[in-house]
Write a structure and sequence with these properties.
Length: 571
């Protein structure tokens, strides 16, 4: 049952381990257990933890029907299909069973184990919780079907399975856990299960300040949400009905309600000894939202071997083989022969354009400056900012000798404005395409397409409305491949942008119009001339991007920071 530890990992602390809880984890491209950035970050965190031999196990839900597969009509109307998959193809069923109480019902939970293996063989087991058991009612059997599906009642019930079911499963499996890490507020109910366990089955209203302190000592929390509306919240009525009146009373007593709503971020903060935001700026924004808490910043990263495209990885293996065992050596990419990086990028770009052609029938030109914009179709990401002044964009495309823009992104099935945004981008793209400007919207943005796009385009563009981007990680994937960003100074880019060295900043403006003007100005005055007239300087910029940002914005660095600051401070 206990995962074996590879030989080269023997020196690490083994007195206990970290249990990492996340509603979504991108485990493998073929497992539809994630929706976007949060899940990819969770997966990359675990991949680095496995590589670095961090004693860790993870808990998530099975999501038997996945998130959704996106289909787009020619007009850009999104429709969705479920993504059923077979857990037994990837995971092993554990014999243990635990129960949770939901709306007064007893719901039985099992776990499927996926063994995530690090580069030297160390295993981080991921337990995918599943309620699809004959003992449960039809409704309860579906509780672990859909990632972010259903309404807030469904969500709260899933959060009980994740948080409370996960803690009980960890105990049933015999794991010795000394740190519980809540990746976002979805997992905050694990604190209640720990408190109940601390009380040894006694009534919650008997909990003392010391009992709560004992729970706090074990818990750390990472918030990912920069705006109050983004936090997971439930009404008192829902809490009483679904969690029960005793637990609700305890949560009220512990001051976890804000503006009359049970606030999962607040709950996680109240019961954690350490909390952090996911970029320098996001830490500040979080402290402003919750001034009574000390909230640190640990900036996100990406798992380098996962996101560096094959031709770039091969080039690095040849010139800088040490990057495989110590990511800090990526800093020495500063010494790479530029021609080698150029050739590797050309090959990644060719691969991307071949996939674009096979998916859409559109043959793009590999010599033409190509921008990438792919992310969740949330309105704050402002996918339409590039189209703010279509004439200006056409002019720039003409001056550049051609401009290609690749778009991709899913809107949550219940996000009407997000879906409308996709339609707008597709329609505007069709109107503007032709002549020197080509715009393509690719269907079903997911892991595979994300990897192709971030490595194959020439510039990665991000235009969030500040301060809505907690971190963002797709620009980090681009940087790993030597692809510079042209972005709003929000999230990680505040730390990552060195003008003209790792990319370019879109200047803050009073409104969308002003920021669009800055976007055009940078494209016209900085990006286009460099790409068109100075390929050697462009290659140097790619190299500095890879060396400076690849060596820092990775999950090996990030996992090390979690170990030193969150999990085992002072060790
Ligand atoms: C990396 C990644 C994200 C995160 O993108 P950001 O817009 O930078 O937050 C989302 N979805 C997929 C499929 C990804 O690979």
């Amino acid at each position: 049952m206990q995962p074996s530890t590879a030989h080269s990992c023997k020196n690490l602390p083994s007195a206990g381990q970290v249990a990492y809880f996340s509603m979504e984890i991108a485990i493998e491209p073929a497992m539809p257990t994630y929706s976007g950035g949060l899940g990819v970050l969770a997966g990359d965190t675990l991949r680095s933890a496995a590589d670095l031999c961090v004693p860790m196990a993870a808990f998530t839900l099975l999501h038997r029907k996945g998130y959704f597969e996106q289909h787009l009509s020619p007009e850009g109307v999104q429709s969705e299909t479920v993504q059923p998959w077979n857990p037994a193809d990837f995971c092993t069923e554990e014999p243990e069973r635990v129960t949770v109480q939901i709306e007064g019902r007893v719901v039985v939970v099992r776990a499927w184990r996926y063994d995530l293996k690090g580069r030297s063989g160390h295993i981080v087991p991921i337990y995918l919780l599943d309620t699809d058991l004959a003992e449960n009612s039809g409704w309860d059997r579906g509780l672990t079907d859909h990632l972010y599906g259903g309404d807030t009642n469904y969500r709260l019930q899933q959060e009980i399975v994740l948080g409370m079911g996960g803690v009980r499963m960890a105990h049933a499996l015999g794991l010795r856990v000394n740190v519980y890490h809540m990746n976002e507020g979805h997992a905050a109910l694990l604190t209640l299960a720990l408190l109940e366990s601390q009380l040894g089955g006694g009534p919650l209203n008997g909990a003392t300040a010391d009992d709560i302190e004992q729970v706090r000592k074990k818990c750390v929390f990472t918030t990912h949400t920069p705006v109050p509306a983004g936090h997971d919240r439930f009404s008192t009525e829902q809490s009483i009905r679904i969690l029960g009146s005793d637990r609700t009373a305890q949560l009220e007593k512990a001051d976890c309600f804000r503006e009359g709503l049970l606030n999962m971020t607040l709950l996680a903060l109240r019961f954690s000894r350490y909390a952090n935001g996911v970029a320098l700026q996001h830490g500040k924004v979080s402290r402003a939202m919750f001034p009574e808490f000390a909230i640190d910043s640990i900036t996100n990263g990406v798992h380098a071997p996962t996101w560096i495209a094959e031709p770039v990885a091969q080039m690095l293996d040849e010139h800088l083989p040490a990057w495989r065992h110590d990511i800090l050596y990526l800093r020495n990419a500063i010494d790479l022969p530029e021609a080698a990086l150029q050739a590797a990028h050309a090959s990644a770009k060719e691969h991307l354009l071949a996939v674009v052609e096979s998916r859409t029938g559109q043959a793009l030109d590999p010599t033409v400056l190509t921008l990438g914009f792919a992310r969740r179709a949330a309105t704050y990401k402002r996918a339409m900012l590039l189209f703010h002044d279509p004439d200006r964009l056409q002019e720039i495309a003409a001056k550049a000798g051609g401009l290609q823009i690749l778009y991709a992104g899913k809107a949550h099935p219940q996000d009407g404005p997000g879906k409308a945004l996709i339609q707008q981008v597709v329609e505007e793209g069709m109107k503007l395409s032709g002549g020197k400007l080509r715009i393509v919207y690719l269907e079903n943005y997911a892991w595979d397409l994300g990897a192709l796009l971030t490595s194959g385009v020439d510039v990665w563009v991000n235009t969030p409305r500040r301060p809505y981007e907690a971190s963002g990680t797709s620009g980090m994937k681009a940087a790993m491949n030597g692809v510079p960003s042209l972005s709003i100074l929000d999230g990680w880019w505040i730390e990552g942008c060195i003008e003209g060295v790792t990319g370019w900043a879109i200047e803050d403006g009073a409104d969308d119009a002003a920021e669009a003007q800055s976007l055009y100005a940078k494209l016209e005055a900085a990006v286009v001339p460099l790409y068109r007239d100075a390929p050697e300087q462009w290659a140097r910029l790619m190299k500095t991007t890879l060396a400076l940002n690849g060596s820092h914005f990775n999950t090996d660095r990030m996992a090390g920071q979690y170990v030193r600051n969150a999990y085992y401070p002072g060790r």
